[in-house]
Amino acid sequence: MPQLQQATVRNSLLKALSPADFALLRPHLEPMTTQLREGLIDANQPIQELYFPEVGFASVVTACTEGQIEVGLIGREGLVGAAPVLLGSDRTPQQSFIQMSGEVLRISALELRAAVRKSSKLQDVLLRYVHTLMVQISMTVYAHAALNLEGRLARWLLMCHDRIDGDELVLTHEFLSMMLGVQRAGVTLALQNLEGAGRIKGRRKRVQILDRSKLEQLVGGSYGVAEAEYARLIGGA
Amino acid sequence: MPQLQQATVRNSLLKALSPADFALLRPHLEPMTTQLREGLIDANQPIQELYFPEVGFASVVTACTEGQIEVGLIGREGLVGAAPVLLGSDRTPQQSFIQMSGEVLRISALELRAAVRKSSKLQDVLLRYVHTLMVQISMTVYAHAALNLEGRLARWLLMCHDRIDGDELVLTHEFLSMMLGVQRAGVTLALQNLEGAGRIKGRRKRVQILDRSKLEQLVGGSYGVAEAEYARLIGGA
DNA sequence: AAATTATGGTGCGATAGCGAACAATGGGAT
DNA sequence: ATCCCATTGTTCGCTATCGCACCATAATTT
């Protein structure tokens, strides 16, 4: 297997590292394909590995009494498992799994911790990423508190769109309903509204993003804040 | 003014520090009384100071288009401003202000950063605290997504109760309604329900906690997770 | 003591989303 | 080509909460 080149990785967190920091991680990055719903981080279990998504993305959810609620989305801009491990906990009550299949670069928690100890610059970048994740989660609170289903759906579509190539998301209404914590029929109606307004185009198992700016009108500012923090602190790709 | 003693501070994050780490911070801690609604951290402004609450607590809110929504609560267990500063951002899109007046120990961001650079053990403790804060915010997402007003109110009361001495909270329905992102009349009804079930006793501008376990029944597991992480990672006080 | 303001209590129509059905449809399997 | 079933579309009554308005009561000021 050819060594990974920083210029060819698609994860923008890895891209943003200094060449020296990337070299620290490179020997320990293992490419891996991911399947829909594949678990990456289990709740309250020691975290053995972290994952830099290259294609596809993962959800971070809180699993509570009934059903799970998504709190964050991590794609090629991030690192799944970063928050607990970088903050010094070997586990977390949250859970992460693949939401859209693709590829990740896996690294053992041990090696990541060692690399971070060697390079404080590396630690700094990753901690700044954790900050953007915290902002994202905070905006998710806002979205649930202030937006109706249609608005939350619009926000979710925008965030997914950022993390894929092209304009077409492959997912079912059922799936969306779980992530947003609402019933499936409600998703169908909300999607129809979005489609009627020319914001998206729905096909079976597919949602095509037609007009991002029209979607952004619905989210009451809950989209874009975390993204701006990322651009400011990590890199403006 | 007498030097602060670690044994007599009430902030449990300061208490949890090693004596050497506390000594690093001590010269820079300035006691300060706080007023209701006093701003501690402004949104998108350089953070000059951080605050260890001693008495009272602060809210972290996301200010968006319309109204602000509370995402977290920081009292004598924590450090206001910890998340952005420890994660390497000099500012944050969120805002923090005093929710219940009292006392804080103020420290300049400059001095805190310097101390953290000198002692990685100090940094580790503070980062673990940031982790617990992240968990708290995640559970706030869950609360908004899965609980009705009564449940969210119960959770909020429990969290406040942890951060005060005694059983009586001084606050108005109006205030609660802003924090929970609902209308004032709804808070009145929810409080009446809680009171009818013997969980609390309401007086004008006052809410007395009568039965914590009955309150915990309403929150669907959204209370306690962050607190358990704190006990596990910082100290079981 | 009277006036004023802040706070809490209550009622009513409107709406969003739930829960639970059932119908229609498209695409993969055989 | 046909069948089957996952997926999507649609409907209906129900409940929580909103938005608004109005009144009651306590605290504060004069």
Automatic annotation (TrEMBL), chains A, B:
<dbReference type="Pfam" id="PF13545">
    <property type="entry name" value="HTH_Crp_2"/>
</dbReference>
<dbReference type="InterPro" id="IPR018490">
    <property type="entry name" value="cNMP-bd_dom_sf"/>
</dbReference>
<dbReference type="InterPro" id="IPR050397">
    <property type="entry name" value="Env_Response_Regulators"/>
</dbReference>
<protein>
    <submittedName>
        <fullName>Crp/Fnr family transcriptional regulator</fullName>
    </submittedName>
</protein>
<dbReference type="InterPro" id="IPR036388">
    <property type="entry name" value="WH-like_DNA-bd_sf"/>
</dbReference>
<keyword id="KW-0805">Transcription regulation</keyword>
<dbReference type="InterPro" id="IPR012318">
    <property type="entry name" value="HTH_CRP"/>
</dbReference>
<dbReference type="GO" id="GO:0005829">
    <property type="term" value="C:cytosol"/>
</dbReference>
<feature type="domain" description="Cyclic nucleotide-binding">
    <location>
        <begin position="13"/>
        <end position="92"/>
    </location>
</feature>
<dbReference type="GO" id="GO:0003700">
    <property type="term" value="F:DNA-binding transcription factor activity"/>
</dbReference>
<keyword id="KW-0238">DNA-binding</keyword>
<dbReference type="GO" id="GO:0003677">
    <property type="term" value="F:DNA binding"/>
</dbReference>
<dbReference type="InterPro" id="IPR036390">
    <property type="entry name" value="WH_DNA-bd_sf"/>
</dbReference>
<keyword id="KW-0804">Transcription</keyword>
<dbReference type="InterPro" id="IPR014710">
    <property type="entry name" value="RmlC-like_jellyroll"/>
</dbReference>
<dbReference type="InterPro" id="IPR000595">
    <property type="entry name" value="cNMP-bd_dom"/>
</dbReference>
